[in-house]
Amino acid sequence: MDASLFLIQPAAAEPIYRQMVQQTRRLIAGGQLVAGDSLPSVRDVAAHHAINPMTVSKAYSLLEMEGLLERQRGKGMVVAAQRLRMKSQSARLDLIDPSIQALANQSRELELPASVVIDRLKEFLEKLK
Prior knowledge:
Oligomer: single chain
Radius of gyration: 16 Å
Low-confidence stretches: none
């Protein structure tokens, strides 16, 4: 994994460290990061995204306390081997519910028809393939 995998939105209401924690949880739950995979160094992430290294360190520390990451001498932070992964579709969908709820609220506020929003979401999902 390299530092560009994190999608940091500095202007978002959610603090950067929480963005990183949530993204890492999703990457692990979705199987894109597996046990033993190395995460980019604090310095690399901070430099790539022009953010404070303490922000990255805080995110990594929280994930370590949850048991999702572990420190390995000479390798830095890696995905923990002992952690049960949420692999069911239902568990992974639970991780995106807050984003879907926010999208639904914004769509209602903008008075956009559900069909138009769903079509736009499908377009974005197709771009990711």
